[in-house]
């Protein structure tokens, strides 16, 4: 439930170092009470990008084709493109499990020139792109197909004519899975295709944290019960298919001044770990955070994270409250692991403020990119038809 109540300025964290000393999570148990019905378990896949800086991908298992071929795929809410799958023959070798189009009886090729074909030029009658290999041989690199998707919940649900870009050359993508589901606002996305009733929303997910539980992704998700508060989706010409909301400020305490976020919307991202902000609010947050954390020893920066501490030997720490305040009186208080990134390096227990000001320019109209760490353990509810997004705290638990 989005909560307007703000807890005390400081949050006591007694278990922090126990968790830090046991970095490999114990096998997580799936709490069927927590997830809504009709949801796919989400697995968090850590990726080591830099020494000690582990980013994550979130994967679900879906079926595609008839009979259903099970594939572990990521999902994206930004307009990075349509649903795609690694497909056989994958050039010389498939290094992830790939969909085999020849084994599906229900597959259809999208014809070239059809409104469903995103290519301007195709090779041949089908919506297929080609590439020339080192020996000068022209080979199909990608073909656009439609087939049945099976969401393996109980009972399994199928959706027909779900479009996917089939990558045929073993092309590596930004995700280590067998594909990515498009959950953007595009008309072909699963968010747009989700079966809707008055009791359902386009989709919702809860991203699991490193140490806690498994999360879930629910397409055509049950509308959460109770008095949910929602914040309106915004329109942005640069990202017409992404989900943007108005983040009005960062709440730091009950009566303390908030840090306002000047003009610009917040993009909710699934492919970005940390939360990025334009300079002024970030600098104000960093200044406040450092003043509240002055009793701890500063540690060297970690990649983009420039506010890091060495907590080695401490049995508990306290971390300032940070609440994301959205338009419409919606707020999301971040848990300790949602605002700090904890890691170990050279046997030291380190933690960094998980917010950053990036080196790049924000696109017009965007002031914040809300990353996955801030979203972990919260159900993010996308009521796309009503153009609003809501948050239910501690939902993966
Ligand atoms: C695919 O997953 C479903 C649900 O978990 C399972 O019932 C089915 O046997 C799997 N199929 C294959 C081919 O592994
Ligand atoms: C085009 O798609 C049809 C099925 O719709 C298929 O029979 C045919 O082999 C495809 N052509 C090429 C060149 O892939
Ligand atoms: C929901 O909100 C309405 C109006 O604010 C209130 O009357 C009702 O008691 C609330 N219900 C719950 C379950 O909190
Ligand atoms: C970390 O601690 C272990 C066990 O005490 C020790 O063997 C190792 O050398 C230490 N590593 C570093 C980088 O200090």
Q: How would a textbook summarize the main sheet?
A: 6 strands, mixed, barrel
The general outline is globular
> How large, in whole angstroms, is the Cα Rg?
22 Å
Strand order of the largest sheet: 3-4-10-5-9-8
Ligand types: 2-acetamido-2-deoxy-beta-D-glucopyranose
Number of helical segments with 4 or more residues = 5
CATH architecture of the largest domain: Beta Barrel
Reported by name, the CATH topology of the largest domain is Cathepsin D, subunit A, domain 1
Count of extended strands? 29
Report the top-level CATH class of the largest domain.
Mainly Beta
Bin the helical content: under 10%
Strand content: 35-45%
Structural class: mainly beta
Count of distinct structural domains: 2
Low-confidence stretches: 1-33
Mean pLDDT: 85
- Specify the CATH homologous superfamily of the largest domain: Acid Proteases
Q: Report the span from N to C terminus.
A: 14 Å
